[in-house]
Amino acid sequence: MGLAKLKKATVILPRMETQAAVSKLAELEWFHPIQSSSISEHINPYYDDLLLKAQKLYQEIDEVIKALGIPAETGVLVTMFKGAPKGKTDYHIDNIQGFIADLEDKAAKELESARKLIAERTVVQKSLEEYSNLKTLTENAASLSMDLTRLGTLSKFYAGIYVVDSTDEAEIRKSLEDLAVYSTNLGEKKVALTIVGSADDSERIAKVMRSFGINPLQIPPNMPQNPNVAFSQASAKVKELDAKVDQLDKEIVKLRESMVTKALSLREAAGVAKDVLETTRKPGGTKNFAVIAGYIPADMEGKFKKLAGDDYVSVVEDAGVTIDLQDAGKPTMPTLLYNKGYSKNFEVVTETQGLPRYGETDPTKIISFVWPVFYGLMFADFGHGILLFGLGMLFRIRGNGRLKMWGTLVAASGLAATVGGLGTGEMFGFHFSELAVLKGIANALPFVGLLSVAELTFDQVVKILSVSIAVGIAHLLMAFLLRLRADWRVGNKLMVYTHDIPAIIQYLAVVSLILTAIGAKYDIIGMFLSSKTYGPIPWISDVFPWVTVGMVARAAPPIIFACIAVTIIGGMKEEKHLKAEGKESPHGGMVGIIVETVMVRTIEMLANTISYSRLGIMLLVHSALLVTVNNSFEHGGGLAVLIGGNIGIMMIEGLIVYIQTIRLHLYEWFPKWYKSDGVTFKKLVPNMLYTNLVWKEDNGNGKKQ
Questions:
Q1: pLDDT at 665
Q2: What is the pLDDT of residue 330?
C-alpha cells in the first residue's frame, strides 16, 4: 500500500565511458545508487574534469544569486502576500556533457547583466567605504585648517597631529612632558595635539598614543592634505556615492524580480548536474571496467534496459530482500513512497514519524482519511473551517514544493472542520438557528446540530466524549490489526498467535467491560454479583440486542485473564528462542514478562483509549472560547472583540488542534505497529521546482533529435 516494488539494476561498462552511462541513468531519474563497500580508486580523468566544471558552474551561479538577495526558499508570509516564483525552464538534453555546456552558455547570457551590476555596486561600495572612513577620520579635525604635507618631509625631527578627547590631554602631556605639545581646540570634547620631537622620539610618541587608542592624522596622498578641505570633499563624495548605491540597489531589485525564476532554475539545474556526477564519481569495478549498481522501481525495468541498449551490459534482478529487515535494526533496501493525488500530500505526516521499511505497510493513505476526521472533530465550526480551507488553498495555489503539500493538508483540515461545523450546527460560535441565512440549511439537512454544543449540558458532554472514545477505539483496533498483518507477512507466527490476536481480544474485552460499567450506571460490584436488570449497554446493545450487562460482566474477565496467560506463555517462548540464538531478551525474565503483560499492557490499553477523549475536549474548549467571545460582543464589546477574538481563537486553537492531531498519531497509534526506520529512496535526479529536463529521443537512426 503506497510503496513501490524495487529491483536491483546493474550496468557494466568501460570505465572511460562512465560519463555517458551516467547520462542515461540521469535520463532514467529513478535510480538509487548503491554505495559499494569497496569503492574503486581508479578514476576517469574526463569524468573528474566534467565534475570540476559542474562544481565551478554551480558555485558561480550561487554567488550571483546570493549577491542578488534571492532566497533559496520562499517563506510562508511571502507566499501568502506575493506568491512563490512560478514557471519552469525547459532544458533539452542529449548527454550530461552537453547539458553542462548548455548551462554555461545560458548562465553567461542570463547572468551577464547581473554580474556587471553586482561588480559595479561592489566597486562603488568599496569607494563609499573609503570616503566614509576618510570623512570619519577628518570629521573631528574639520576645523583645523593647515597643510599636513610638510610634516612628512622632516628628516631630523618628528611631528604628528593627533585628535584626542579633551579629558585625555593632561595625561598625554604628562607622559610626553619633555616634548613640545601644541593644542588646538576643535570643540567641546575634542582637541588636536601637534607633538614635535626628535626622530628618535617617534617610537615613544607612537607607543604612548597607541595606549590611548589614537593614531596620527594621516590623509591619503590623493586627497588634499588640509583636514578642512579633505573633510568637505569626502562629505560631498560620500553623499554622491550614497545616491549611486541607492540607485544601483533599485536596479538590482528590479533585475532580481525579472529574473528570479530563471536564476533559480539555473542554480537548480547546475546543482542537479553536480550532484549526479558526485554521486556516481567512483563506481566499483576494475581498472578498465566500471560497475554501477542501484535500485529502480520495478515498472522502470523496461526503460532501464532500453536506455542501456546494446552498448553496455545491464542486469535487472529481484533484490532478494525479504520484508523482515530487522538485522541490527538497519534496513538495507530504500523506501519509495508511491502515493498519488490527494493522499500524496499526507506523506509529510508520515515522514514526521519516519519512513516505513521496505515491504512494510505505508500509513499515508490511512492518515489521509483519519487526519481530517480528527481535525474536523476538534475544530468543528462552519465559519472557521471555511477560512482555514481558504488559507490552505491559498498556499496550494501560490506556493510550491512542500509548502504546496502542506497547503493541501490545511485545506483538507479546513474542509473537515466545515463538515464538523455542520454536525455541531455552529458558525463562528453562533448556532445556525440564530443566523437567518443558515436557518434554511439547518432545516434541510437532518444531521445539522447532531453533535450540538449550543448548550454544554451534562448529556451533551457525555455524548461528545463517547463519540471521541468510539473514534479512538476504531483507530487503536486498526493499529492492532496492522501489527498482526506485519507479523503475519514476515512469518512470525509466534507473535501472531501469542501476542497480536490475544491483544486484540483483550482490548475488545476491556472496552466491553468499560461500556458495561456505563450501562450499569457505574454499579461496578453489582454488575458482577447481582442478577439485577440494567439498561442497554452503549454500542454493544445496538449491534447485539440480546446481550445483557450480566453476560458481559461475567464473560469479559475470564477472557482478559486467558489473553494475559497466552501472552505470558508466548513471551516465555520468545525469550527462550532468543537465548538459543545468543540474543538478549528485551523482557527482563519471567518477572518482567508478567509485569509487562499484566500491568503495563493493560494499563496502556486504557490510557491510550482515554487519550482519544481529547477529540471531544478540544471541541468543548473551542466552543467555550467562542461563547466567551460572543458574550463579550453581545454585551457591548463591538466588532473589534468579535473579529479579533475569532482570529485569535483560529490561530491558537488551530495550532493546538494540529499538535493534538499529530500527537494521537505519533504517541498512540504509530508505536503499536510502525517501525519508522526506513531509508529514503534518493532519485539520481530529484524533483525540481523551476526546471524541466527534456531528454532528446532517438529517431531510430542512431541520432538524437
A1: 93
A2: 56
Strands (DSSP E) contained in 460-615 are none
Find the helix packing angle between 501-519 and 458-489, rounded to 10°.
170
> Residue 319, SS3?
coil
Mean pLDDT across 105-127: 91
Average pLDDT over residues 129-133: 79
364-378 and 458-489 helices, crossing angle to 10°? 170
**Look-up of cell digits 438557528:** 433
Q: What is the torsional sign of CA 412, 418, 424, 429?
A: positive
Extract long-range pairs of 44-49: CB within 8 Å, 24+ residues apart. 44/15, 44/16, 44/18, 44/19, 44/290, 46/16, 46/19, 47/18, 47/19, 47/277, 47/281, 48/281
Residue 580's pLDDT is 75
Which residues lie below 8 Å from residue 247, measured CB to CB, with a gap of 6+? none
Q: Partners of 679 in the beta sheet?
A: 334
30-44, 413-427, 492-506: least confidently modelled range: 30-44
The whole-angstrom separation of Cα 495 and Cα 378 is: 36
Q: What is the pLDDT of residues 370-393, one digit of tens each?
A: 999 999 999 999 999 999 999 999
Residues 6+ apart with CB under 8 A from 452: 424, 425, 431, 460
Amino acid present at 103? L
Q: What is the CB neighbour count within 10 angstroms for residue 438?
A: 19
Contact status, residue 486 vs residue 673, Cβ threshold 8 Å: yes
Cα–Cα dist 666/655, whole Å: 16
Contacts of residue 193, Cβ cutoff 8 Å, sequence gap at least 6: 161, 162, 163, 164, 169, 172, 181, 182, 183, 184
Contact 409, 699 (CB under 8 A): no
CA–CA separation, 22 and 277 (whole Å): 8
Q: State the angle between helix axes of 227-279 and 112-139 in degrees (0 to 180), rounded to the nearest 10.
A: 150
Residue 274 CB coordination number (10 Å):
20
Q: How many CB atoms lie under 10 A from the CB of residue 362?
A: 22
Under DSSP, is residue 220 helix (H, G, I), strand (E, B) or coil? coil
Whether 403 and 84 have beta carbons less than 8 Å apart is answered as: yes
Torsions phi, psi of 7, nearest 5? Answer: -130, 155
R_g of the chain computed on alpha carbons:
38
- In 10 A of CB 3, how many CB atoms? 21
CA separation (Å) from 395 to 270, 399, 687? 28, 5, 19
Query: What's the DSSP call for residue 670?
Result: G
Instruction: Calculate the CA 449 to chain-centre distance.
Output: 38
Report the predicted TM-score, pTM, of the whole model to 2 decimal places: 0.80
Grid cell, residue 98, equals: 552537453
Adjacent-strand bridge partners of 293: 10
Residue 474: all three cell numbers together: 476504531
Higher local confidence (pLDDT), 329 or 198: 198
**HEC readout, 397-463:** HHCCHHHHHHHHHHHHHHHHHHHHHHHHCEECCEEHHHCHHHHHHHHHCCCCCCCCCCCCCHHHHHH
